[in-house]
Design brief:
With about 90 residues, the chain is an alpha/beta fold. The protein has 4 helices and 5 strands; from the N terminus they run βαβαβαβαβ.
Length: about 90
């Protein structure tokens, strides 16, 4: 079974700065516009359409507001992109 690694807010900055790493914010567009901490915004319903683009990264850090949606997306990415390192910001960005 494909898996991902949980990370904390404390780990986020050092991991974000690694080469070939994407910080992926899976909140809705309006949420991202309201409170943007950087990264690329792709809402959950668009993820499968963007798999080719996402496969260009070695590591993908997935985040949302509280960790629920991003956990689902991290599981999906781990399954669809098994060669990539998928990290999940467990408590979300708030």
């Amino acid at each position: 079974m494909a898996d991902f690694t949980e990370i904390s807010q404390k780990d986020l900055e050092s991991l974000r700065n690694r080469p070939a790493t994407l910080f992926l914010d899976v909140r809705e567009v309006w949420e991202f516009a309201d409170f943007n901490i950087g990264g690329q915004n792709i809402p959950p319903h668009e993820i499968t359409e963007k798999l080719d683009e996402l496969s260009n990264y070695e590591t993908i850090i997935v985040a949302c507001s509280n960790g629920t949606r991003s956990s689902i997306v991290a599981r999906l990415l781990a399954k669809k992109l098994p060669a990539k390192e998928i990290l999940h910001l467990e408590e979300g960005i708030y």
